[in-house]
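Run DHA1 family tetracycline resistance protein-like MFS transporter through structure prediction, thanks.
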Amino acid sequence: MSAGSPAADVITPPPAGPRRAAVGFIFVTILLDMLSIGMILPILPKLVESFADNNTADAARIYGLFGTAWALMQFFASPLLGALSDRFGRRPVILLSNFGLGLDYVLMALAPSLVWLFIGRMISGVTSASIATSFAYIADVTPAEKRAAVFGKVGAAFGIGFIVGPAVGGLLGGVDPRLPFWVAAALSLANAAYGFFVLPESLPKERRAPFRWRSANPLGAVRLLGSNRTLGALAVVRFCADVAHISLPATFVLYTTYRYGWDQTTVGLALAFVGLWTAIVQGGLVGPALKKLGEFRAIVIGYSGGALGFLIYALAPNGTLFWVGIPIMTIWGIAGPATSSLMTRLVPADQQGALQGANTSVHSIAELVGPFVFTMIFAAFISAGAPLLLPGAPFLLAGALLLVSMVVGAYAVRSMPPSLALKPAQEQPVAAADSKAAQS
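Sure, done. The structure for DHA1 family tetracycline resistance protein-like MFS transporter is below.
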């Protein structure tokens, strides 16, 4: 099947199989990944700060460079891994990524200097590609009309991971700042072992695509997103949302410790609260919201809710009001799965890995831009020579980017072919019946 295949070919459901069990395997895989990442999230910025003589402004600049280096590695590695997963299957890419990530956490746990910590962060940019491949796995085993809901449920693994991970990481970091890295390494290696024994392959040999260098390099992968005007608009939506999201890992810890005086334990609990609400929204509300609202309203409400949450983050005068913004922020979670689902319906089955690799390349570009921009803005607005003391400035920019995502996303849904865009449940009784008949 080629990129020029008609839309009818694109939305053909995959062959029948143990879809529920396969999605369960991927859920656990992503959950263990998120537990590992979540545990080091409240610790890594403070570890960088300790190497920077505890100067917050200098640490912010260095941490921004860490994020940029990580994204640069992802930018080059992700399309290559996506193309390899289209050629050789999803399972080997997921397993190698998890195994490599575990070894990388060991390296960071032992890092004796900022240089070694930086090297470890660069390696993790290559090895942390299993999530993108996991989303291609979901597209392999899930009918097109159910992907948004499944993406939401699997996205709940992100929330659960961030409920437990940051809280545990904050507590472990209070004992020893290197301990979370050791535990994260154990979880990642356990994840690789789990997948080796129980994770089935999702892409049959007859549905695999030849390896193509033009889709395995970053520029070729991004060209795939420009092959269709609607797909290109959705890529812009994802890019703006990805840049906005990066404001959180780039400045959340530095911002809350600077402005509210939070310690590592409080930061970990706050991130766990973010994870709780993310799990509630993505695990329980995405499917019903898509059926009730349709993709147009889900995108408008989701991205505007996220923008309001960022506004509260930026302007909250105390930590209590900051906590109030967390559940409002996570309304954003209903828009992301809708966007991802729409994109999978615009490419054929044998290019789902290439699509996810391209999406990850776009995310990597955002990661190249975001950490530098947000940390520099944060440093500029808290420095002695700042024209205005406004530590929440990065969150104001992030909220504006989500409003751009909302506008462009609404346009993209309106431009979708009627056969591909889902409507609210009350507007599609005949379509729903036709869908059931087509599956029987």
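The chain has one domain: 17-203+219-427.
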